[in-house]
Design goal:
- Keywords: Carbohydrate metabolism, Hydrolase, Magnesium, Metal-binding.
- InterPro entries: Beta-PGM-like (IPR051600), HAD-like_sf (IPR036412), HAD-SF_hydro_IA (IPR006439), HAD_2 (IPR041492), HAD_sf (IPR023214), PGP-like_dom2 (IPR023198).
- GO terms for molecular function: hydrolase activity; metal ion binding.
- It comes from Holdemania massiliensis.
- Its cofactor is Mg(2+).
- The protein folds into two domains: 135 residues, Rossmann fold; 67 residues, DNA polymerase, domain 1 (Orthogonal Bundle).
- The protein contains nine helices and six strands.
- It is globular, with a radius of gyration of 17 Å.
- A six-stranded parallel sheet has the order 3-2-1-4-5-6, sandwiched between helices.
- It has 215 residues and is of the alpha/beta class.
- Helices cover 40% and strands 13% of the residues.
- Helix 8 links the parallel strand 4 and strand 5.
Length: 215
């Protein structure tokens, strides 16, 4: 039986993956680059720095240094990440209630920054639901490396054999699998990513609550 659940943030707690893609599209368009939105989805689940590094390589952007590119990218993101545009994923609160009734420990492991995830949890009024919150700026290597999940496991004080991870991205699934964790591919986002490597895939939280073998 599962004793702990580790949530990714973007695309799991809230449907922000389309916002990231739009922000990157705006940035590249300003640089005269026409990018395929589906191509940009491959960078979902990475830290901001890592995704910017990969985008600069992919599109051969050499007129800016990395730090300037990241700063400009953050400004593009900020247009879409206003508090009144941010909402919990449908069914999230009910699922958290369900898990807490089962006595299951909850954690977040996100590639986003500590400031961002803490603000989001405050905004949604769910910070007290999670005993552990690990962000991308707290580990050396972001997803798809497993560092963030090793840290979350250590802070939860639970072995991987009783933990499950909810992820919406290929990079996130890869990170969790490398850490030896049971993975749930979550496909409720407007941008549905490749989670075929997950142990199980679900369309939303209602379907997830029906997995009787887990809870």
């Amino acid at each position: 039986m599962i004793k702990g659940i580790i949530f990714d943030c973007d695309g799991v707690l809230t449907d922000t993956e389309p916002k990231f893609t739009k922000g990157m599209m705006d940035h590249l368009h300003a640089l005269g680059i026409q990018a395929d939105p589906q191509d940009l989805e491959t960078f979902c689940g990475m830290t901001l720095r890592r995704s910017c590094e990969e985008v600069m390589k992919r599109y051969k952007i050499d007129q800016l240094d990395l730090d300037q590119f990241i700063e400009d990218e953050q400004r593009c993101y900020d247009r879409y990440f206003q508090d009144d545009q941010m909402f919990p994923m449908p069914g999230l609160i009910e699922f958290l209630d369900f898990l807490q009734k089962q006595g299951i420990q909850l954690a977040v492991a996100t590639s986003s920054s500590t400031a961002y995830i803490q603000h989001l949890l405050d905004l949604f009024q769910i910070k007290d639901r999670f005993s552990v919150v690990v962000a991308g700026d707290q580990v050396e290597n972001g997803k798809p490396a497993p560092d963030i999940y090793y840290k979350a496991m250590a802070e939860l004080g639970l072995p991987g054999s009783v933990l499950a991870v909810i992820e919406d991205s290929e990079n996130g699934i890869a990170a969790a699998k490398k850490a030896g964790l049971y993975t749930i591919g979550f496909k409720a986002s407007e941008i549905v990513q490749n989670t075929a490597q997950a142990d199980v895939e679900v369309r939303d939280y209602a379907e997830l609550m029906q997995l009787k073998n887990l809870f």
